[in-house]
Amino acid sequence: LALYFHSGEREEKCIIEDVPSDTLVIGNYRVQRWDIHKQDFLESAPGLGMFVTVTTPSAEVLLSKLYGPQGTFSFTSYLSGEHIICLQSNSTRFVAFAGSKLRIHLDIRVGEHFLDESVVQAKDKVNEVNIRLEHLIEQIHHVSKEQNYEREREEKFRKTSEETNSNILWWAVVQTLILISIGIWQIKSLRDFFISKKLV
């Protein structure tokens, strides 16, 4: 996931990332500040830091740390589900002047273990091949984990759909029984009324 978004200083922006359990998540970000004179975003925002907070599906704070104007954060999920990643600048300017617009470039990689560049340039080809194989095996495990997670979600969704359909069916049966009961009661009431008035 690679994106950028605009934010005011001290304004918190959050994204939701659906992550399987026991998965490494790595985020890279870079902040640009709007320059009024140039009418453009400056390439860097020196002196500006970003406060990164990650919350698990059970509302537990997994990561809460202050970084610089650009940086990398990472965390490993222990629960599967929607993790909330929030970024907020730590602008120290007075609130009245803290309305400057920021552009935040964010790149999030889920379950990706990066291959060390020194491995690529290794002289020992056997070690290089071994490490590359381990890297591929890790990626295969991650894909397998993702598939299992999607399968679990699909099964949960199917169960919910079946329960909803079952509830609708029972509600239709109950409605039908109520209507039949009301119809029988009305016929009986009318018959008793006619008998009491000696019309039948």
Concise account of the structure shown:
This protein is an alpha+beta fold and 200 residues long. 38% of the residues lie in helices and 34% in strands. The strands form two sheets. Strands 1, 3, 4, 7 and 9 form a five-stranded antiparallel β-sheet that branches. It has a four-stranded antiparallel β-sheet with strand order 2-8-5-6, with no helix packed on it.
Could you characterize the architecture of this molecule?
By secondary structure, this protein is α+β, with helices and mostly antiparallel strands. It has helices at 117-120, 125-196; strands at 2-8, 12-19, 24-35, 40-41, 50-55, 61-67, 70-76, 81-89, 101-110. The radius of gyration is 30 Å and the shape is elongated.
Assembly level: single chain
The CATH topology of the domain at 2-114 is what?
Jelly Rolls
Q: Sketch the topology as an H/E string, one letter per element.
A: EEEEEEEEEHH
Overall CATH architecture of the domain at 2-114: Sandwich
Uncertain segments are: 94-98
Q: What is the number of E strands?
A: 9
CATH C-level class of the domain at 2-114: Mainly Beta
| The CATH homologous superfamily of the domain at 2-114 | GOLD domain
> What's the N-to-C terminus distance?
80 Å
Overall 3D form = elongated
The main β sheet shows up as: 5 strands, antiparallel
Helix content: 25-40%
Structural class: alpha+beta
What radius of gyration results from the CA coordinates? 30 Å
Individual helix count: 2
Family: Belongs to the EMP24/GP25L family.
Domain GOLD: 12-110
Membrane topology: Single-pass type I membrane protein
Protein name: TMD11 protein
